[in-house]
């Protein structure tokens, strides 16, 4: 048996790929969650004392700053303290409560120690903490990474707006487009879903053991506790869920993860299309100095950025789908299935973030081979059959032609056959159509049969 390795990260997100995903760890790691929990506990104390509840006096600005430093300066000492305390309490949120109480004592604020975690159930603190951490992770890390991919697609869409290319509907030669327009489609799709993600709700509850404010009212029946809770939660920049069980129902999370999974599906489509365009020679990959494509074939430059993105988007989609399916349900007023599930939010978003990083880098490492696109178009003149039969139909309607069934006529000429420019020119010359229509068709080539693709791309 081999000797045991030194401690190693089990997940590649914390090992091989850590550089690409480290921004999420600041929010969605266990330490990030605990920092947010300290923030929620501290701000609740400040909210209660600001209202002089139970005869307390509002804290001075200096005292508030001292308290807020508990989460603003949260670091290794607090991480180690909580780990040691949780080993005893066997309860993560209770350990956070004890940390805040300990620091209150250090600051000489023992008189308000009992306001720590006052009338709270763990889910009050957790729901607010997850709302804060997920919101910050999405808005400050994930969305900027998505924006970088969208921006690159927009740039490429504009740069290649006028680059005609053969389309391949069902994998077969089809009406030409431009590469810029095809890439602009992805930017357009992603921008729409991005708007939905950016408008997401991030909700928390703060209503006690079963969502009824029972303990609060027992302690002080004359306070409008729902109003106090709403003002407190909304004051932290997140939304308030007034009607819940013990837990915040997580519907906002289901909505968010489904939207991110939707964006991932579009990105997956982009990755596979780019891989295919590279395999067809439409894009050349720019060599990176010192890089190896194959361990045995020196000539190869493999499209690893798009392959990596494809795989990580599939992992992310699976995890996001599992999160959505699990979090939508809680037995009766509470079960703990959401506890371990939510600890994997960072993993799900991490695989998505890694994919975004690879897509951005991949799009920066390709060069359009316009000569290949033009050669492909020149080898497929039969795609003009659509234009010819459509013009004939218009001429029939206008009374300038008596040709019967134009579609069948072009089908007979082109289906399953290769036709060249001379063949089509001869065919068009013999058509019974007006001279203006005939000249438009004779001037048409596969490279110019792109409609308004260039304008659409721009």
UniProtKB/TrEMBL annotation:
Keyword Lyase: yes
Protein name (database record): Adenylosuccinate lyase
Chain ranges passing through the membrane: none
KW Transmembrane helix (keyword) present: no
Adenylosuccinate lyase PurB C-terminal domain location: 330-450
Superkingdom: Bacteria
GO molecular-function terms, A-Z: N6-(1,2-dicarboxyethyl)AMP AMP-lyase (fumarate-forming) activity
InterPro entries found in the cross-reference section: Fumarase/histidase_N (IPR024083), Fumarate_lyase_CS (IPR020557), Fumarate_lyase_fam (IPR000362), Fumarate_lyase_N (IPR022761), L-Aspartase-like (IPR008948), PurB_bact (IPR047136), PurB_C (IPR013539)
Pathway listed: Purine metabolism; AMP biosynthesis via de novo pathway; AMP from IMP: step 2/2; Purine metabolism; IMP biosynthesis via de novo pathway; 5-amino-1-(5-phospho-D-ribosyl)imidazole-4-carboxamide from 5-amino-1-(5-phospho-D-ribosyl)imidazole-4-carboxylate: step 2/2
Alphabetical UniProt keywords: Lyase, Purine biosynthesis
Main function: Catalyzes two reactions in de novo purine nucleotide biosynthesis. Catalyzes the breakdown of 5-aminoimidazole- (N-succinylocarboxamide) ribotide (SAICAR or 2-[5-amino-1-(5-phospho-beta-D-ribosyl)imidazole-4-carboxamido]succinate) to 5-aminoimidazole-4-carboxamide ribotide (AICAR or 5-amino-1-(5-phospho-beta-D-ribosyl)imidazole-4-carboxamide) and fumarate, and of adenylosuccinate (ADS or N(6)-(1,2-dicarboxyethyl)-AMP) to adenosine monophosphate (AMP) and fumarate.
Record domain Fumarate lyase N-terminal: where: 59-309
Gene3D superfamilies in the cross-refs: Fumarase/aspartase (C-terminal domain), Fumarase/aspartase (Central domain), Fumarase/aspartase (N-terminal domain)
SUPFAM superfamilies: L-aspartase-like
GO biological process, one term: IMP biosynthetic process
Organism: Microbacterium bovistercoris
E.C. numbers: 4.3.2.2
